Amino acid sequence: MPVPGRPPRRPTVVCRTGPHASPADELAAVTGAGLLGVLRALSHDRIRPCASPTCDGMCVGTGKAGRRRYCTPALCGNRLDAAAHRARQGAVSG
Ligand SMILES: [Zn+2]
Q: Total structural domains in the chain?
C-alpha cells in the first residue's frame, strides 16, 4: 500500500538457482533478473543497438530522456566524431 510522501515501493526480484549451479548459471540468472528489472522500470524502446556502424553492442537509455546512442560513448561516440572530423577536414582541404 502506498505511503504518502514516500516513493512507491517496487517489487523485489528474487533470483534463486539450484544448490549446484555453476558460476556461469548464477551469472546468467542475475543478468536475466537485471534485464527484467530494466524492462520493468524503463521500457523496451530504451534498449537499442549502438549507433556506431562498426559496433555490435547494445545500450540502455537510462537518463530522463532515454536517448543514449552508444554502448560506450567514450569509445563509439568518439570514433564517429573523429571520423566526421576527418571527413570535414578532407572536404575543406580538397
Ligand atoms: Zn558501441
A: 1
